[in-house]
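Support reply, case 0932

Customer input (verbatim):
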Amino acid sequence: MKDTATRGCIKGIFINREYSWLQFNKRVLDQAMDLTNPLLERCKFLSIFTSNLDEFIQVRLGSLSNDAKNSPFEVDNKTQLTAKEQIAAINEILPSLYKASSETYHFLRAELYSKGVNLLKPSTLNERQKLNAEEIFQESILPRVSPVVLDAKHPMFKLENLKTYLIVRLERKGRAMFAIAKLHAFTPRLFRIKGGKKIHLITSEDLLLLFADKVFPGFSIKQKALVRITRNADFDAFSKDADDEFDYDFSRLIQTKVEGRTRGDIIRLETSSELPPELSTFLRQHLETKKCSVYVVPDHFDYKFMFSLSEYFSSEEAAELKFTPHRPVVPQVLSKTSDLISEVKRRDIFLAYPYQSMDVLIKLLNQAAEDKRVSSIKITIYRLAHNSKIISALLKARENGKEVVAVMELCARFDEENNLDNAELLQEAGCTVFYGVEDLKVHSKIISITLEEGDKISYITHIGTGNYNEGTAKQYTDLNIITANHEIGCDGASFFRSIAVLDINHDYSRLLVAPHSLKKGLLAEMDKEISKGSEGVIRAKVNSLTDLECIEKLVEASKAGVKVSLIVRGICCLLPGVEKESENISVISIVGRFLEHSRIYSFGKEGEERVYIASADLMTRNLEKRVEIATPVLDKNVKKRILSLLSLIESDNVKARRLTPSGKYEKIRALSKMINSQEECIKNANGL
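Our regenerated output:
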């Protein structure tokens, strides 16, 4: 990726959002070259990089393409670039990322070879290997190929998003024709070639390209290439459309929107080699690719197969080439109790994923499902694991006569179908399910459990920074507080009533809730620190920082002498260290073994901190266009633990990268001992 700002992507104290995201994904790719990571883990980072890039193209480039068409003169509010200019900048940067990923692949491929696994390219096959490859093709690939020679009776079909196709130009009896072939979706990605002590592997798409002539017998193949298209997956869903077109059923609107993704405009075309003019012209004429960006990808369009390489090592060898396994722990103080309801009534429970286990929360829900004192369980759902234990606990509660209310967000991108299925399960069981409020995504992470003992009503409330997903709870760093605090409990109960009656402007006693009070509350906390001048302290850990008003407030704090320490994993639109502007602001990013996902906000110097955890980043979409929750940390012990964790992350000098005034991210020079905050958390999982 180029070191200098591209097409005005850095202006003054501002960094363009898309440019910053591409920098983040480059930091992900860097982990594939970081020798402090075991080899098979580095292979996974390469795969994650391409997966991230695919989603970026579908969603962000898709959104910009829509904007360029619908609002061509509108500019982003920080670097003043139009959508067309941002697309041009992305197209200028992407070739360097493709080149870097190719170099990374070849680096990993060489190291895999030294460990006994040889990832073959067709051009490297010797005669014996080629004969074996042809046998494999005939037996395992050809039966899974769907070819079409295009003519008047065999028209071009619509290409699927992110699927690999073989495109060929054929000739028979002097007649030139074009053809296309795709592999069955369940075709294995890797095949083993016989010979030697090493394990020789080749991908199914390389075999398809190598033996294209076997797919089209009787033709002479003049040109051939592998291609993959990416479609625009960005869409808006407005409740008014559901009212007008789907008889007030928002789920039906979302179902049609999801199905519509297969028909989205093609916005990227990837090819395995430079296309000859005839193939290029054919694609542009027949695949609606006239306006899309075209990239030559010499190795592989994606690296999902890198996740499966451990299968080709012995269990002992694979263990040496992976991170030492970490199993989330149940804190010792909680492992000995069977009555979590009584435990949380005594004191707040704090959980830090993935170091500590989500099983504690699931156990609490299952206990609540059985406990006669519990009258209702209410929950917001954004992303769930498949075969979710959360859903099972809710269904059990409903079977036992509890009121169960689920606010199911159907617009959780790429999880829409899973959420539709779970919504149907809950509805069939008699649970109350609704899909949010107005045209706002409900991204909050809250569970409200109501207990009734005689005339007394009390609450247990869970508020977290991450989804109720058992899978990601083992991969993402997230913080959770379970509390019996009555004020927060009343706020939690009010939250669900407010969503139900479309009241987004409700005033809460303790909680900060977007879009009404979260941004206002955080800015007010910043103002308190600004009033202290050089005695002021602002610390925050977020995934992204893009909101203009928040950026301007942080710069105001810097000018007032406030020390601002930011941990921003991904997009950061604020350039730190600019003299007389942001010189008192530091920004680090951590990309490591686990995805940093927790959001922490701390205001005030040591001993006087006011601390919040939240579902929201400092992004306009979170603060103004979603329903989000931040909770103050009221328990002194929990606050101490969160602040200790925040300090540990700030001290990371292994996986952290510092954003410099040049707009580049640099390694932090370790002056004393090396600190990898995630590894330290694993070591101290019980005591976090």
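We compared this against your earlier run and they match. Two observations from our side: The CA atoms of residues 348 and 483 lie 5 Å apart. The first strand starts at residue 10 and ends at 11. Please reopen the case if you see a mismatch on your end.
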